[in-house]
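Progress against Task 2.4 (sequence-to-structure conversion) is shown through the following example record, which the project officer requested during the mid-term review.
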Amino acid sequence: MNELVLTHNDYQEFRKWLNLNLDGLTWQGRFKKEFEAFWDVFFEENLSVKSLIVRFDYAYSQVKIGSLSSWFLWLRDKFLSYIFLFKNKTVGEIAHESELSPSLVATILRNYLLDEYPHLDQYFSEVFQVGNVLSPNLQTSFEKIKKDINIDRPESGSREDEIMPSMEVTLFDEWGIFQKRMKADFGTKGFDLSKIKERSSFLKQVRVVQDISILLLLFTLTIYGVRQGNIWYEKHLANRVSIYEPQFTWLNKSGVFKGLEKKPVKEFKLDFDGIKDISKSDDINEFFDPEKYEEESEVTLTSFENIPRDLNKADKEASQYEGDAENPNGYRETTGGTTKIYRLMMTSTNTYATRDQLNELVKKYEGSPVGDSKPGNDVPGGVYYNIYIPRNSFKDFMSEAMKVNQSKLFESNTSNVKNVPGKTRVFIMVKSI
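Structure tokens generated for the chain above:
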């Protein structure tokens, strides 16, 4: 069996068949140069199937954002489907050359063909049923399938309603970081994915130890600083508190005025115990009798209208000094959209139930899709949303959405893309666990 080696022509045919939407991937061409640089480095000339699968595994393990991980997983599955359709390779041969599990390869090919020909569900389930390495279905090829049921190769590797060919991968900050790391690692002689994973794991452990050490050091310094500050302040108060004895000059009874005698003023310094004894004196207690003094008067509000209707949104309500919200010269933002976007990364054991709950929330808060994408599309590894939410209900929507399942919220600012005025853009990735 001859090992398949991919050339630049193969990569061009694969990309053409995949039918990628470069405008969507590169934000209307703004990041086209960066995407082309990634493609040239990743799909290098004269690589074997195994080498490319290793690179897909590398990309999947290095990126941390769920959307990017799903995109690389989707690209790998499409690459295996392309080899099966156009390189006349059987399921067993692809599994052998890629060193992937035969059952995994068969499942990937079955899912792709089932999306193209959903009415042939029973047939594809039978020919791609691979239970062990001795299964006769390992010899299944597309030529055999074509003879059995007389179907043609799909003209495109992507469906019209599929979101992955247009996913905005270049928008993520991690895309540029990954691209630089990938170029450095692929350029190293003797590229070894296992060593890179070990290095990443070791660096993570080192960072954890560093973070713990810094926290312990800050905690120790804080305790020491508070203790030393208390000691210093105690000495400072002891030095400042003192009692002076008044001096009196008396007249001479003989009728002769007596000159003033310059005597030093006597100073009596007390420690804290002495101060406590003085504070127990009846005279002191009488002096500080609270019944002899009036209580401090309360502050009276000048107008009831000064109280915010909602204290949590007090800083967002327009006052009479900010002008009318419809006035373009007012302080409030009234024209144009913001450049702030949000990403909600969610995990779920039942992505379909989670999708139903999120769809109800999108409908409840009048969410709308961005472009031609449909909210709640299936993607490899989960469900993906790309929607607009009205800004006045965005906080309520996110509050309810984050209660559906365990999730993390990220906020980003982009200098190139603006939201629709009055709306906030939200990406939601529900990752199946």
